[in-house]
Each structure stands twice: as C-alpha cells, then as structure tokens.
Amino acid sequence: NPLVGNLIGEGHVNYVLMYNMLTGIRIAVSRWQAKLRRPLVPEDFTAAHKYSFDIVGNELTPSAKYDFKFKDYAPWVFRELRESHFHLDPADYLLSLTAKYILSELGSPGKSGSFFYFSRDYRFIIKTIHHTEHKFLRKILPEYYEHVKANPHTLLSRFYGLHRVKLPRGRKIHFVIMNNLFPPHKDVHETYDLKGSTVGREYPEEKAALNPRAVLKDLNWINRHRQLEIGPEKRALLTEQLRRDSDLLKLLHVMDYSLLVGIHNVARGNRDNVRRNTLKVFSPAVPMVKRKPTQVKGPSSPEAIAMRRLVRESDIQNLESITLPEEDHGERQHLIFYQEDGGIRATDEENKNLDQIYYLGIIDILTPYTTLKKMEHVWKGLSADIHKISPVPPAEYADRFFSFMKAIMRGGEGGERFKSE
Ligand code: ATP
Ligand code: CA
Ligand code: CA
Predict the structure, then answer these.
(1) Regarding beta strands 3-6 and 172-179, do their DSSP bridges make them parallel or antiparallel, or are they unpaired?
(2) CA–CA separation, 92 and 77 (whole Å)
(3) Could you tell me the domains of the chain?
(4) Which of 260, 282, 338, 370 should be mutated for ligand 1, with most atoms under 8 A from CB?
(5) Is the separation of the CB atoms in 160 and 179 below 8 Å?
(6) How far is it, in rounded angstroms, from Cα 392 to Cα 377?
(7) pLDDT tens-digit series, residues 252-279
(8) What are residue 173's DSSP bridge partners?
(9) Are 392 and 182 in contact (CB under 8 A)?
(10) Which pLDDT tens digit goes with each residue over 26-56?
C-alpha cells in the first residue's frame, strides 16, 4: 500500500529546519538511551538540556551540516513515557524519526499556524507548537504523566518528546512528537474533528464531496446521521475512558480540544488509496494561498496562473512512493482502543463485527483558557448562543464534550438532545 507523500528533500523551504530537528532528536534521544534507567525524581520534569551543533562538532555533538541550537525537555520523563507506558521500542523510534528523507509535510491543516510532519513510516507526527503551548505542556507534565500512568488506555495525544530548535539569528521553534492516530496500512474514508460545539462547526458538504480527505465537523456528523457503532462492552470502556480523560482536561483548565474520528470502511478496503488524493488537497500552495489571499485576484490573473503552475510543479517534484508496513506496530497491540487493525472494530449489540474500523483519540489538548480565549468567548457570544460556541470555560467545555461523545455512540446516553438541534 504505497503512500505518496510530499517529501521534504534538499531544496525544500523547510529542509534545514527538518534536518536540524531530526539531527537534534537523534543525538539527544540516543544520549539518554545509553544511560541506565532509574526512577524519576521531581527535577526530571523541569529539566532542559541544551545542545549546540556546528560543522566542526564537539564531544557532545558530532559535526552537523548547519549551525543550530537544540533543546531537549524532560528527557527522562519522555523516555519513561515512551518505554514504560506507551510501549515504544527505542530503536524503532529513533529509526522512524531519523532515516534520510524521512518526513512528509502536511502543511498547516489547522488555523493555529502549526505545521505537521509525518515520519516516513507514517507512525509519528511532529507538530510545531506555539510558545504558550510549550510552556503549558511543561507545566502540566507531572499531571499528564500521572494520568497516563494511571490510565494506560487514555485517548489523549501520546506525547513522545518535546524539543526546541533555534537557528542562528532565527526564531525558536518548539515542537512535540506524538502518535499518528491513523494507521499506515488502512485508508481512512471519513475524518471528523468533533468538539461538541455546534456553532459554525460544519465543513461545506459541496466541498466535502470533492475532497475525500476533508476533515468534517460536528454538524456534518449530525446531519449525516453518523453513529459510532460499538457493542455494549467496548462502549462502556470507551465511555469510561472519555470520562476520565475529559475530567483531567477540566482539571488542567484546557479547552478547544477535539475527538478526532477516522472511519475505515472494510468493504471499500484500501482500493481508493485515499492518501494519494490527499496531496492534491494539502499541496504546498494551500498555506501560501491562505497567507496571501489578496495576491490571487481572479482565476486568470497572472498571480493565479503562477500559483497554479507552482502547485503543479511542486506536486510533481515532491511525489515519491513510500513502502509502508503492512502489519501493525507493537505499541498498538497493548491498547484496547487501538488493537483491532490499529483501531476499534465496529460491532453490533451482540458483538458481531460490522463493516467499519474507527480510529479515534483526543487531540489539540494544549490550549489553556487564556485571556485571548476569554475574549473570543465574549465576542462570539454576542452573535450566537453562548453555550454552543466553541470557546466556553473549561468545565463547561469538558461537560459538553463528554455529553456529545456519549451521544455519538449508538445506544449511548443523551443522543436525542444533540439530534434535535
Ligand atoms: P487549530 O488550533 O486551528 O484547531 P492546530 O494547528 O492546533 O489547529 P490540530 O487541531 O492539532 O491543529 O490538528 C489539526 C488537524 O490535523 C486535525 O483535525 C487532524 O485532521 C490532524 N491531526 C492532528 N493531530 C493528529 C493525530 N495525532 N493523528 C492524526 N491526525 C491528526
Ligand atoms: Ca484543533
Ligand atoms: Ca490548536
């Protein structure tokens, strides 16, 4: 099942950044990996280690192609998370993240300006994060760690590492490494990003018809009468885990997170090769158009023509086949919600298999309820129902999120409330 990716090779605008990220990870992670494991101490949570790379090299860092600084945060904690709680094989992890020409870029699918990169085997995602998210993750790391320890089946994003790269005279770029919820070996036919908010939470259906990789939202789910069909036992487990995870998020005072749901249709299989179509959607020109909308004046303006040519050329340059593993990787087998073909198999009330596999998890969990969000809350509240808009205070957000998630399961409680809206 080949994945065609928008690979970052030499010459790509983000090549140097990628090179530095991966070089930093390789050196930092292997340095800690070489040490004997020991129990965590409180200082491990606040630790940060600096590395300075240059073309000459020194005793700590081998020579690199570029000059840059790298910072590794809480390495012992993340190592513990990876090995003891997320069941990652250390050698595997390094290999996935450091092979040559390893990453493909997904542009910036969210509004936040974050960039996403897949490891070449599609198992890991590097997400660049804002400084405030970085600070926040460091602050909540002890609670996050304890939660993961107490909840091996948590649906929260699995954070494998937190790092920073700084180019000479350049910006500081923070990033996390996390699990890709979607498996390398199955097409995902429908994707939903669900928050439990119904105001403005709709991806236009006309556009969705043309774009198999569209990320649909709450209203699309409701209007399409979708349901998570999972038998009673799995439903109870999932409900309980969602309850615990949203309780933690409430306690941490965060909001704006979502349940990401990918649906694989077994009868359709992998023949559509949905990921191949992805590229046409998230081509490098998408973020460019977003950033400079005024440049594209009309379909036949010189700018628009140049832009289209750019898209075509870069698409062709960057298309390259990758062979993906056919089998599930080790870590998923340990996890109830990720062990049936990498996800949850749909089942009826008698636990007989149905035709779908669901891939789900809670993502984007690093947004604290800051002043900015409070302002957005008041602002959006002026024009819509103040309890249905997406930015509401954390306790309300978590309760609404949890009720919605219960409602989207067949046989789950509270379905009528949302359906009638
Ligand atoms: P915003 O703050 O505007 O919502 P963001 O930049 O913080 O955006 P996310 O919400 O984290 O981005 O993710 C945006 C999209 O990227 C998701 O809707 C999903 O399609 C994809 N995505 C994010 N995290 C994952 C993941 N762990 N596995 C698979 N896909 C993911
Ligand atoms: Ca989001
Ligand atoms: Ca976000």
Answers:
(1) unpaired
(2) 18
(3) 3-179 (3.30.800.10), 190-276+324-419 (3.30.810.10)
(4) 260
(5) yes
(6) 6
(7) 999 999 999 999 999 998 877 655 333 3
(8) 165
(9) no
(10) 999 999 888 999 999 999 999 999 999 998 8
